[in-house]
Specification:
With 340 residues, this protein is of the alpha/beta class. It is built from eleven helices and 16 strands. It is 30% helix and 22% strand.
Length: 340
Amino acid sequence: MRIWFNHWFSTAYHIIDLMKGEGDIIIGSSSNPHSVVGLACDEWYAEPELPEEEYVNFCLDFCREHNIDVFVPRRGMAAIARNAALFENNGIKLLMDSAPEMLGILHNKLSAYKWFEGFAPDYVPMHFEIKCLEDFRKAYKAITAEYERACFKFAADEGAVSFRVIDNFMSSAEGLYKAPGMKLSYENAEAVLSDYSFSKPLIMMPYLTGVEVSADCFYRDAGSVIIPRYKSAGRIYTVKYEAEIISFCEEFLKRSGLKMPCNVQFKYHDGKPYLLEVNTRMSGGIQLSCLAAEINIPRLALERLMGIEPELHIIRRERKVSYIESPVLVGEKEFAGINI
């Protein structure tokens, strides 16, 4: 099969390694000529920065030109889902869920929380929609009446690009002992937002202080694969199967109708897990889950597209997993036929 990955994040290097079978050809593309994903690909191409609908046309033309059998989108997923029939009518299988309504709900944190409140309200944290500076001030006051800190981001965001934590220690000498990262004081946050048009709504919620959990999920009629990774100190993750997390993810998969790999993120606070968000794609750490559980989710997803549903014997045992960074040379593999 000829399988195309478009503009994925760097850990797709591992997803490709897990998915690729004997005889498969992996085609990769990016607007970043130095992406390490290119090192895992058999063919490597440049792709343009385009508005959503124009990008869909680019993807369709690319699939035709390069005889793509399976397209694994990351960039432009929402627009590609809306136009899934264009690809299917050309014999191109999409390795993604393509129900636009459900994807639209989950892509926006405000609409996602509203949907989850319909069947799992106890897992939805306190949150506020921020459409103006006065909303921001009121929400901050309400949250800090019950919690030590608040945080905010765009309601529709990916990769925590806009995520910020309001930490007032950052404006005092104690801030010297804290890594600034995505932290800022209330005064700094208010100053930043006073210049913002609020053309994209924000969401504000408490900053939850417990353990993060990233559950890699893959729906199966005969028993879904759900692998929760608990973030420990440093780079250590513990894969364990606590009934509450498993039960929540199973119910989510049944209600959402998602059939392709997805990722559900939680964070604990005072011993209770709260839902953070759902990513309707394979996570950046799925290779850690697959190693710990000895289950190859990317390959299972590809086989489903081919009409294959192998029997699985899932052994749920607690294991610790970590990763190391290995140096690689980038820029050694040029885009095919195109100079950037």
